[in-house]
Design brief:
Length: 166
Amino acid sequence: MNRVACPAPRRLASFALASVPGSERVALMQVADSVAHLNLPPQRLNKLKTAVAEVTMNAIEHGNDNRADLAVDIEVFYSGTEIIVTVTDHGGCGDPGWADEDDAEIPDLDRKLSGDQGPGGWGLFLIRHMVDGMKVTVEGERRTVRLTMRTTVPGGQAGGLRHIGG
């Protein structure tokens, strides 16, 4: 059987940020700079940046409790077909807000307004819909969120809408 070996993902960037408000903007800019040469369509790049900012804000607020002395570690990789961004914080003790996708409650505005559903959950919902994959792993006191975004989209619809007609 012939198999084509997939190369190991290549690291494009690795950096640590203090857990302070505004670090999410630094994170999204540094991630965008590190993948600029991959020429993602603007709409997909904006989705990646939004997801990175949301995950970084969650890491700062929930994982590291806004403690400036605890870093948020971010790495960016490229596998040849997808961009992988990992965001690691110190919230491995377990935050119920990071439920598996199958267990996550879908935010419902009417239920939230009536008080039948808590106010949170929008960030994770948004993140999951901005990227092609999201996985949360915990190792000791470290929690890592792994975001993946394909650089090619099946059917050639990388930018979203397609022009049809003459």
